[in-house]
């Protein structure tokens, strides 16, 4: 998993906006995992979130259809065969929507005492 060099780990100040599409637990976990990264390997996301290939594929497809995530296929340097690995990343829209959604969730929480 490659960290995004342009991301200092803090979301820019954004207007809170709750997003029903991203709020589903698996979608939210995927976006949260990808937020600080430039990209991640499908297998790493699957393992980190303890999801099946089918569940992750279906959820990623939904996020791709929304324009929040992009996927790319690349030859694998570790494999001698023709199989390729899938890389996953948040799109700029996905980052903005996640940041706004996270800000909305934070706005719902009581202030620190």
Overall body shape: elongated
Structural class: alpha+beta
Radius of gyration: 15 Å
Number of domains: 1
CATH hierarchy, class: Mainly Alpha
Instruction: Average the pLDDT over all residues and give the rounded result.
Output: 88
Strand order of the largest sheet: 1-2-4-3
Can you walk me through this structure?
The chain has 113 residues and is of the alpha+beta class. It has a single domain, classed as Arc Repressor Mutant, subunit A (Orthogonal Bundle). The chain has five helices and four strands, in the order βααβααββα. The protein has helices at residues 20-23, 25-34, 42-49, 53-66, 92-108, and strands spanning 2-3, 37-41, 69-75, 84-90. Strands 1-2-4-3 form a four-stranded antiparallel sheet. The N and C termini lie far apart (36 Å).
Describe the secondary-structure layout.
Elements (H helix, E strand, L loop, with lengths): L1 E2 L16 H4 L1 H10 L2 E5 H8 L3 H14 L2 E7 L8 E7 L1 H17 L5
Antiparallel strand pairs: 1-2, 2-4, 3-4
Summarize the structure.
This protein is α+β, with helices and mostly antiparallel strands and 113 residues long. It contains five helices and four strands.
